[in-house]
Amino acid sequence: MKSNVDLTNATWAKSELSSGGNNCLEVAIVGDVVALRDSVDVGDPEAKVLIISRTDYDLFTQSVRAGQSNLLP
Q: pTM of the prediction?
């Protein structure tokens, strides 16, 4: 896993279902990794960002779309 990913120019997106709220998961695709953050943390220099591989992100989202119900305990 990459620990030093430059997110300076990352384009963050959140679901259209969030209705513009500030309590959402935001996603940024940066090369071969995907960064995930909580929208309430935007602007917080101490906020944590989860970095996962693009492959893992694609597999997870495909499973959600397919209706896999056991993704979370």
A: 0.79
